[in-house]
Structures are given as C-alpha cells and as structure tokens.
Design goal:
Elements lengths: L1 H135 L3 H46 L5 H8 E5 L4 H7 L4 H10 L2 E3 L6 E5 L3 H17 L4 H30 L6 H9 L4 E2 L2 E2 H18 L4 H10 L4 H7 L3 H11 L4 H9 L9 H15 L6 H18 L4 E7 L4 E7 L5 H18 L7 E7 L8
Parallel strand pairs: 7-8
Antiparallel strand pairs: 1-3, 2-3, 4-5, 6-7
Helix pairs in contact: 1-2, 5-7, 6-7, 7-8, 9-10, 9-14, 10-13, 10-14, 11-12, 12-13, 13-14
Length: about 500
C-alpha cells in the first residue's frame, strides 16, 4: 500500500514537473516572440529612417548638381560674351590699322607731292634767278633775295586772307555761344552790387551839358578819360553821367573834377588839365585832414604826417568789397575792448588796430604785400614794436607777442568774417585790373597806364622822346602778349598805346 502511495506521489511530481516545464516553455516562447516583434519594429524604423536620410541626401546632391550646372552655364555665357567682345575689338583694331595704313599712305603721297612741288619751286627760282642775272645784271644773291621777298609778300597776303576767313567764322560761332551764355547768366549777375562799388553818378543841370562834356569830335571826353584814368559813360539816362573805375581814389578825383567843370561851365582841354591839378592838390590836403580827424576822435596823437595822410587815403581803398578805412576803425575799436577785458593797454591796442592795414593805402600804386609795406613804413617812423608785430601777426607772418597784438588779430578776423562784410568776386576783379596796369607800367618808356571799360581796355601813355611810332606799335603787341600769358580774363582786352608830343611856350 505504501508502495502504491509512493509511486503515485512520484507520478504526480513527474506530471507537475512536466506541466511546469510545458508552462515554462510556453512562457519563454511568448517572451521571445514579443522580443522578436520589438526587434523587427526597431529594425523597420531604422530602415525607414535610413531611407529618409538617403532620400534627403539624394535631394541635396541633385540640388547641388543643379547649382553647379547653372554656375557652369553662367561661366560659359561670360566666356562667350568676352569672346564676342574680343572679336569686336579685334575687328575694330583691324579697321583702325587699315585706317592708319590708309592715312599713312595718304601722308606719304602728300610728302611726295610736297617734295615735287618744292623741287619745282626751287627749279623755277633758279630759272628766274638765271633770267634776272642775264636781264637785270643782278648777282645770284641779289636775285635770290628779290624773289624770296616777293614770295614772302604773296604768302603773307594769302595767309592774311585765310586768317580773316577763319576769324570771321570764329566770330560768328563766338557770338552764338556768347549770346547763349549771356542769356543764362543775366538772372545771376549781381549788377547792383558791382554798380554800387564801381561807379559814381554825377547829376547835370541839363542834358545840354552832356554835349559840352563830350566836346567837339569827342576831344573833351577823351582828355578827361586820359587825364583821370576812368571810364565816362554818357548814355540816354536823363540828367546824369557815369564815372566808372575800380580805383576809388581815382574815381573820387574824377567825380570832383567833372563837378567843378559843370559848375564853372568852361569845359575844354586846357581848363580840364588846370582843374585836375587843383583837385589833386586838394585831395592830398583832404586825405591828411581825414586822417587827422580820425586821430583826434580816437585820441591817438602824435603820429607821423605820412602815416596820417595814408590813414586818410584808406577811405579810398577797398578789400574784398569792404572799405579799408571802415574795416580799420572797426578793428581798432574791437581791439581796444578786447585788450581792456584782458588787462592790456587799450590805447596801444587801438593804435595797432588802426595801423594794421596801413600798407593797403600804397599797394595800388606800389604793388607788393601790404603787410611788408605797412611794417616798413611803421618801422621807418619809429612806431611801437607791438604795432609792427600786430601788422605781421594778423596775416600769420609772426606769432602775437602781446595781449594787444592778439586782440588786433582777433578783431581783424571778426571784422572780415562778419556776414556781408566782404565779397570775393569784386576783389578778384580789382586784382586782375591792377595786374593789367602793372604789366603795362613795367615796360620801358611807359609813364602811365589806365585800365578802363571794366578791365576790357587799357590805355598806355608813353614818353614820346623814348618811344617812336613804330616802337609804339610793337609795344602794344608785346603788352597784349604778356597780358594773354599772365592774366586770366573773360573775352578780350584792347591795348591802346598813346604817344603824344607837346610843346609849351609863354608869350610875355
């Protein structure tokens, strides 16, 4: 019985173990099946991802290929364009070479023709010399000189004809161009400004005086312009005439001379010269009195007579359209105030300001730098070293060595920089006209020269004892040539050389 129970127990265990084994095997299979499914799913995802990456890479490769293809096509187009340009240039060069070759051939033909003509001319000259030697009993040299003179005369005549022809053509073209330029410029021209500073108006009692000023055959107006060095404009404006000149002093004298002549009523060359001499003497005295009055007003006496006279004469001088005397007084007063504020000598600053531009009173007559001229005059008349330093310093030739000099430099800058104080155009015009006069007066035998008609004409008066009529002609050409070489100007400048012989005697 026990045996049976033992066998049954073992059988149960065996069955249980078998069942457990089957369960374990089944469970293991299920687990492996699940892992297999996961592995397959991951493998499939990786494969899909790899395929996407491959597609993206293919797209990028194709895009790059397209870009390279476009760039390659562009390069090909550029090369083709360059080739076409080179081909065109080559064709043009070939044409140019052909043209040059043709031109060279033409020149060579002309040279050969000229050589033939030259040989023919020489042969004709030799024949003519031979004939003249036989007929007129002339030597070979005499006959040759005679023929060359004739040939030169004929050539000059032909050249003159050609020159006149082209001068006429140039004149016609120039007139067209000038009319166009004038039409464009009329609205921009500062006529009021130029007129205000370059002309004086003289009122006449009646228009009959215009005829008396002109005189018989214009002798009175010619004498006035010659003596006074100004332009006198007698036009249709009722009751007035114009006196025009860039030189204020000369214009003021001319205005006074004409006013006296009109008041007196006697207008003829002799009377004009007499009044002119008298007015010149009056103006010398008047300029001294002007300078004296300024010094009295400012309390700057004493001062040398020459400096006083030059100070008065600055009333008739302008710089960049600014009156020199007005500018000087402005600088003197400003310098006085500045020096006082800085603890300097007020009177010394005012004196330095008053004399800083004194050289300008002589630059129209002497030429040169007003700084050097002014410093030399003040040094000669024992002016204070500060005054001389201010003259040099206000144009940067020296450094200011005192409060007073620095005040003058600052005051000069303020006066010149004030809006509307100066104008460059007028100054450049006056410099050009002055330069034209200096070119003429620098010539030997010239004792006076006046630029008139707004600088478009210059009248040169020469010493009749030193310059002959023929030399006067040559002198006019030389002056015109020098003006043309050295001066920049619009249009043309007429040079008149006037040679006059005068004899004076007195009946007692």
């Amino acid at each position: 019985m026990l045996g049976m129970i033992g066998i049954s127990g073992l059988a149960g265990v065996a069955v249980g173990a078998g069942v457990f084994y089957l369960w374990l095997q089944s469970s293991t299979k299920k687990k492996f099946a699940h892992l297999e499914l996961e592995a397959k799913a991951k493998a499939k995802a990786i494969a899909n991802e790899a395929e996407l990456l491959l597609q993206e890479a293919n797209v990028k490769i194709k895009t790059k290929e397209l870009e390279l293809e476009r760039e390659f096509q562009n390069r090909i187009a550029e090369v083709e364009e360059r080739n076409r340009a080179l081909i065109l240039q080559s064709k043009e060069l070939v044409k140019e070479e052909e043209r040059l070759a043709l031109l060279q051939h033409h020149v060579e033909e002309k040279e050969k023709s000229l050589e033939k003509l030259e040989a023919q001319k020489q042969e004709e000259i030799d024949q003519a010399i031979h004939v003249m030697q036989n007929v007129a009993s002339l030597t070979k040299k005499e006959a040759k000189n005679y023929i060359l003179e004739k040939v030169e005369e004929e050539s000059r005549s032909e050249i003159a004809g050609i020159v006149r022809k082209y001068e006429q053509l140039a004149k016609e073209e120039g007139e067209k161009k000038a009319n166009y330029i004038l039409a464009q410029a009329t609205t921009r021209y500062a006529g009021d400004f130029a007129g205000e500073r370059l002309i004086n108006l003289i009122a006449l009692p009646s228009d009959e005086h215009k005829g008396r000023i002109i005189g018989k055959e214009g002798r009175n107006i010619k004498t006035l312009e010659m003596l006074l060095g100004v332009d006198i404009v007698v036009d249709e404006t009722p009751g007035v005439i114009l006196v025009s000149s860039f030189n204020l002093y000369r214009r003021a004298i001319a205005t006074r001379v004409i006013e006296i002549l009109v008041e007196d009523g006697r207008i003829h060359p002799g009377r004009i010269e007499e009044v002119h001499e008298k007015v010149q003497a009056e103006f010398e005295q008047k300029t001294y009195e002007e300078g004296e009055n300024i010094l009295i007003d400012l309390g700057l006496f004493p001062m040398h007579e020459e400096l006083v006279r030059l100070l008065g004469r600055m009333k008739y001088r302008a710089s960049y359209g600014q009156n020199a005397l007005a500018h000087t007084l402005e600088v003197a007063k400003l310098a006085k105030v500045m020096a006082a504020e800085m603890g300097g000598d007020e009177k010394l600053a005012m004196r330095a300001g008053l004399l800083h531009d004194i050289g300008k009173a002589l630059t129209q007559d002497m030429g040169g730098s007003h700084v050097d001229i002014g410093a030399e005059i003040c040094r000669r008349h024992n002016e204070h070293p500060t005054v001389i330093n201010a003259i040099y310093a206000h144009h940067g030739h020296e450094e200011p060595d005192s409060v007073e000099s620095a005040a003058v430099c600052a005051a000069d800058t303020l006066s010149a920089a004030r809006p509307g104080a100066r104008r460059e155009v007028l100054e450049s015009f006056t410099k050009r006209v002055k330069e034209i006069e200096e070119i003429a007066t620098g010539r030997k035998g010239v004792f006076q020269a006046y630029a008139i008609n707004a600088g478009r004409e210059i009248r040169v008066f020469v010493n009749a004892r030193k310059i002959s009529d023929n030399e006067a002609v040559l002198l006019s050409k030389e002056i015109a040539k020098e003006i043309q070489d050295k001066v920049q100007y619009p249009g043309e400048i007429k040079v008149n050389v006037i040679r006059e012989t005068r004899a004076t005697s007195y009946a007692k």
